[in-house]
Amino acid sequence: MSLADTLPTIELFSELSKKELKNIAALMTPIQVKMGRVLTKEGDPGREFMIIIEGTATVKRKGRVLARLGPGDFFGELAIVAGVPRTATVIADTDMVIETLNRREFTSLLDESPRIAKKVLVGAVRRLHEIEESIIR
Ligand code: CMP
User: Fold this and answer.
1) 80 burial type by CB count under 10 A (0-12 exposed, 13-18 middle, 19+ buried)
2) 57 CB under 6 A from ligand 1?
3) Is 1's pLDDT higher than 70?
4) Which ligand 1 atom is the nearest neighbour of the CA of 87?
5) CA-based nearest residue to 74, from 25, 121, 37, 23
6) What are phi and psi of 100, to 5 degrees?
7) Claim: this prediction has a pTM higher than 0.70
8) Binning pLDDT at 50, 70 and 90, where does residue 7 land?
9) How remote is the CA of residue 23 from the centroid of ligand 1, in Å?
10) Vertex 79, ends 73 and 83: CA angle to 5°?
11) Could you tell me whether strands 57-61 and 89-92 are parallel, antiparallel, or unpaired per DSSP bridges?
12) N or C: which end of the chain has fewer CB within 10 A?
């Protein structure tokens, strides 16, 4: 499947016009990763925002599983948005295809659409809430 076919199926990009999708596709670089690859490492500086096209990944923090992510899910936004270290380790459970955006491309993505910015913001707040709950419990 081409990027043009895949993008509209990603929840983050639903409700966007063809033109917006085209602009967004130009920002992205698809890469293939092997099962077991560490995609973000807790405590490291972060340079990329990633969207899963194929495959699944596990999110772990302090050795505990926080979430499993699959096609259409995104991750890596927290370190990029706030300039803080990676909050969690994300590991590929399977061979995967992911789209990566560097900080500049991610900023352009947020500028492109307030809808996307809102979804990323809501997701970020939920994730931080879950992290906080896992600390308190
Ligand atoms: P970042 O901190 O840049 O790198 C690790 C990523 O894991 C983080 O961004 C989020 O995208 C993701 N993440 C952190 N906490 C959660 C959570 N509770 N549920 C799902 N994903 C998370």
Assistant:
1) buried
2) no
3) no
4) 2
5) 121
6) -120, 145
7) yes
8) confident
9) 26
10) 150
11) antiparallel
12) C
Q: Which amino acid is at 130?
A: E
For 22-48, what is each residue's pLDDT tens digit?
889 888 889 999 999 999 999 999 999
3-state secondary structure the chain: CCHHHHHHHCHHHCCCCHHHHHHHHCCCEEEEECCCCEEECCCCCCCEEEEEEECCEEEEECCEEEEEECCCCEECHHHHHHCCCCCCEEEECCCEEEEEEEHHHHHHHHHHCHHHHHHHHHHHHHHHHHHHHHHHC
Mean pLDDT for the stretch of residues 82-111: 95
> Residue 45 class from Cβ within 10 Å (0-12 exposed, 13-18 middle, 19+ buried)?
exposed
The CB of 49 under 6 Å from ligand 1? The reply is: no
